Amino acid sequence: MNADARKITIPNEWDRRGLPGWTYHSEKMFELERDHVFRTHWMIAGHVSDIPDDGDWIAFDMLGERAIVMRGQDGEVRAFHNLCRHRGARVADGESGHCRGALVCPFHGWVYNTDGSLRGVSRPETFDDLDKAEFGLKPVEMEIWKGFIFLRFLPGPQPSVATLFAPFEADFDAYKSAELLPEGDVLWETTLPVNWKSIRDVDNEGYHVALAHPGLQDLYGRTYRDEVFTGGVSYSHGHFGDKPARLWSVKEYVKASPERPDLPEHLQKAWTYYGLFPTGVIAFTPEHANYYQDIPLSAGETLLKGRTYRMPGEDRQARIARYLAQRIDRETSEEDQQLSIWSNESMKSSAFEDFHLSDLEYGLKTHHDELRKLLPVMRLAEAPPEDRLAQSNEELALALQGAG
Hints:
The protein is an alpha+beta fold. The chain has helices at 27-38, 161-164, 169-174, 196-203, 209-212, 214-220, 248-256, 316-346, 362-374, 389-403; strands at residues 43-47, 56-62, 65-71, 77-81, 96-98, 102-104, 111-113, 118-120, 141-145, 148-152, 181-182, 188-192, 225-229, 233-239, 270-276, 280-284, 288-298, 301-310.
């Protein structure tokens, strides 16, 4: 898909209201989101370069689900529920690690091969005729696309990751995303006292960039665009280098960022962002890449986490540019976090009535539309009683099916 084909047409008239404020602090709403949004949609777990050697593994936890992604002794990458089939203990503890040939449950010593099969149990004479073939680690649905690892805990409405990102396959190939290498060994993460939707509301529009993000405004200013696609995938981009920068970090970054004649024109001197509903983003600059996403912990608390990757064959100039790009990114993230807190606070105020969105916030509207499709109860301006919220959602879903 060329750059011109990505341009969207925003309707002259559209519903500029956002989700009602009650959906940001309802505990029962959060339970519906857990079951119908997060467990049933693709989440980013990492990149194949995070587990380069046989026996390497990374963990991914979310809303009561625990997964382990491991490269087996045969070199294959697989994903499993991180629970022993005996009593449910974690077979691997921590963010990442390495096992020499098998995983040993720390509770009772059940042993699993790196392909997930059960090798043996401790004190086997104390069990009946236990069929080891029936007690391997339970698999988690996984897809590897252009090097990135995606997990889904329950079947859901989204098609394959490859289908979702098909419009951008050429971009990921141009960036050589399958060849990325991790920068450092630890995921970055921070926790905010907000509902996860407040974070998405800030990240899903560029209207605030000019005032809220001095670094980004100095970097790419009015060239920033949000291109929104149906089906839960979005594309945003900004180009730099066409005007003198004022801020030191931006000025030095523009000088250091390497020329990339190997990239197509629309990716040269550009920062690009590829969003995946509900909370995932994969971002590229000419010298590095990263992913980040929001993992809800409760209705009022959210974990932000992600990882940075460098390009293969990185030289000193690219390393300097990557450092400066990350510095700009960190400042931007801190600014967005404060905006998320202020926005989330307003949802409980008696003065809050509704959003009135700009055309520059159409990306936020499409995100809300995806949520309304999944959870029709979000269409209600007033909150149903908490104890009837799930029932109200089912009734609305049935009514919409009948009307359709």
